Predict the 3D structure of the following.
Amino acid sequence: MAWRLAGALVTLRAQVNAKWPNRGKAGDGTIGDEAHASRSSDHNPWVKDGAMGIVTGMDITHDPVGGFDSYAFADMLLKNQDKRLKYVISNSRIGSGPAGVSPGKWRKYTGANKHDHHCHISVMRDKPQYDDTGSWNIAAVN
């Protein structure tokens, strides 16, 4: 199946790469593997734009040595409550964007992957949100 990453996440990844050019990327990811395909995951291209599958979830590697602290980055995303944000998972915590459960508040995340080596960002499933390529406010993260 043909797929692509949501435009909002393409923009966010480009901003992260520009701001932290020396960060490790070993845990970066977009499209899911077979394990993801067997369960509900925003790494699967289930959102459709015509015949194109859209991946609405992305992982960014936690690399404080390389200058990128994904825990602080996730805190900032949750605090900023960008309208495109569906949820963020980081270090055994999950928090929702403006349209989710308890927006802006961390809750315990009990999934098999603690997301302590990367953070996961998912965007909303509607095209005006997932393909909004406006800049994300990431200025607050050092």
